[in-house]
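Entry 14. Structure prediction run on the chain below.
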Amino acid sequence: MPATFHQIMGVAAGIVSFVAFVPYTLAILKKETVPNRVTWFIWTINGWLALASYHEVGADTTIWLAISYAVFPALIF
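Output returned:
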C-alpha cells in the first residue's frame, strides 16, 4: 500500500525535527554553549505532554514530531 501524503509529511517533520537538535547538541559537547536547565526541563514536560496527547488521539502518522520534541529536550536537560 503506497504511503499517503500525511504519512510522508509526518515522517519528514520528524526527521527535520531530529536533525534540528544536532547543531545545538554538538555545541553543548564542544562547550560552546550551556543549556539552561529550567528551560529544557519545561520543554521536556511540554514535549512529553504533547507525545501523550498524540498517542491518545491515535496520531500514528505524525507522532514522529512529538517523539523528537519529547526525547531530545529530555536528553539535553
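The chain has three helices and no strands.
Filed with the rest of this week's runs.
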